[in-house]
Q: What sequence folds into this?
């Protein structure tokens, strides 16, 4: 491809991108293809000769788009969002063009220094005290793994990194029964073993019970185990319940345990002063993660990791081969020492673009709009005689179910709601996912997609009502 051809195609692609963003809601939200359909449509052999970009792009539209679930649709109410925005897309275009490898300061000074500055912006904006530092990871799963490894090494004076787990197989990590499955995965990867993860029961608000946490720690100490780390959650995946840091924090301090906070989705709400109550007890936090790529309109992947003891983080991951030694070492942040990967993308650029283009006020207005729509819909559902809310709604995820009075069989609501959600999703007009709350099948209505308006929410609710009515005729 020549420079002239690149210019022509790039202009064409940008026009298509703008049209797509403007019309994303016209596509079926959840892909309607069957398993294997896309795979079968692609040739078994790679082409011997190069093909024109026009031909390739036609196949993208004909063969790839039908297999895309449209996360940027305003009718996407599933999971948590993976939001994008115009400034973020523009920044990603520049990042791809530069092709920057940001492993150390020397390989791109601007990338390292911009990352440090944007992290400082967020720390102040979100109400964190002095003493924390930040780094961008790819996902919250990776950030939590970094927290567990750092806690492990700090507790053993870095012996496990040096000698392995000999004699150190008795650690305990604590989380609530509502904590994300990635915590269990990270515990396995970090070498602790699944049995080392102790899941603490929750209260009627689905929050970790601090009294039972302390009892579990005391019991483990009596049995000869080594309590190491507590993972608290702000905004659990099922229901966005908020663990009480004000109660958990003093326990972590009392027993000298690392306190990691997983706020992957809900952390974005901390840019709202009225939601900074969620980190009361912040003085006891050792590490904290949230994902701007969920609810702060920054393309995946961009996960912000705050840590109080950056030196221990660096000492956990640092390896210094000859080819990475530089004269600037010690004067700057070489972020390849702040996590698992050596190679790093220039993620700070898109976050910088987003914060500057929206402005703090613009970001706050957007989040408050989502929160208001969720609270308004919650009140509507609460008043409907055939629906019931199954969990508190502290943020913008509503867990509810269809339970008409005529249904008496205890197992019937589960079947009915599963059929309801499948029928709605198959229309392509909206997309919902489910969870279980107190062992009841629940529909999750997550209102956080960047382009969602009140009209989209009302349309989706009407679709649920119409579908539910047909199911029980």
A:
């Amino acid at each position: 491809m020549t420079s002239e051809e690149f210019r022509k195609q790039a202009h064409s692609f940008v026009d298509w991108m703008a049209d797509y963003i403007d019309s994303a809601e016209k596509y079926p939200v959840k892909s309607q293809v069957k398993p294997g359909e896309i795979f079968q449509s692609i040739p078994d052999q790679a082409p011997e000769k190069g093909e024109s970009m026009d031909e390739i792009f036609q196949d993208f539209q004909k063969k790839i788009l039908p297999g895309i679930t449209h996360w940027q649709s305003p009718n996407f109410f599933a999971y948590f969002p993976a939001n994008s925005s115009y400034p973020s897309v523009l920044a990603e275009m520049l990042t791809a063009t530069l092709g920057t490898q940001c492993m150390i300061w020397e390989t791109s000074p601007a990338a390292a220094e911009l990352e440090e500055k944007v992290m400082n912006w967020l720390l102040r904006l979100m109400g964190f005290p002095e003493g924390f530092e930040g780094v961008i990871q790819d996902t919250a799963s990776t950030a939590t793994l970094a927290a567990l490894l750092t806690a492990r090494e700090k507790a053993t004076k870095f012996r496990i990194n040096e000698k392995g787990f000999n004699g150190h197989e008795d650690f305990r990590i604590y989380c609530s029964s509502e904590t994300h499955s990635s915590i269990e995965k990270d515990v396995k990867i970090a070498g602790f073993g699944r049995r080392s993860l102790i899941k603490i029961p929750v209260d009627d608000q689905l929050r970790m019970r601090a009294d039972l946490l302390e009892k579990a720690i005391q019991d483990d100490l009596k049995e000869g185990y080594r309590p190491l780390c507590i993972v608290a959650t702000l905004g659990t995946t099922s229901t966005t319940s908020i663990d009480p840091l004000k109660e958990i924090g003093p326990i972590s301090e009392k027993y000298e345990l690392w306190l990691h906070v997983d706020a992957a989705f809900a952390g974005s709400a901390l840019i709202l002063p009225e939601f900074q109550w969620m980190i009361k007890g912040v003085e006891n936090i050792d590490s904290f993660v949230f994902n701007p790529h969920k609810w702060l309109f920054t393309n995946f992947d961009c996960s912000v990791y705050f840590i109080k003891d950056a030196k221990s983080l660096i000492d956990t991951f640092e390896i210094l081969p000859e080819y990475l030694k530089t004269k600037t070492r010690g004067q700057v942040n070489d972020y390849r020492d702040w996590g698992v990967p050596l190679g790093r993308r220039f993620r700070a650029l898109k976050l910088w673009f987003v914060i500057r283009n929206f402005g703090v006020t613009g970001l706050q207005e957007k989040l408050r709009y989502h929160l208001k729509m969720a609270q308004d819909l919650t009140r509507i559902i609460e008043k409907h005689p055939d629906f019931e809310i199954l969990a508190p709604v502290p943020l913008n995820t509503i867990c509810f179910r269809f339970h008409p009075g005529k249904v008496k069989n205890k197992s019937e609501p589960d079947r009915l709601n599963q059929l309801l959600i499948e029928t709605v999703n198959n229309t392509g007009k909206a997309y919902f996912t489910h969870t279980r709350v107190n062992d009841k099948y629940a529909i999750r209505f997550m209102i956080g997609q960047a382009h969602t308006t009140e009209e989209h929410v009302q349309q989706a609710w009407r679709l649920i009502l119409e579908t539910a009515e047909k199911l029980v005729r």
The longest helix spans residues 348-383. The mean pLDDT is 94. The two ends are 60 Å apart (CA to CA). The chain has three domains: 3-81, 100-345, 360-471.
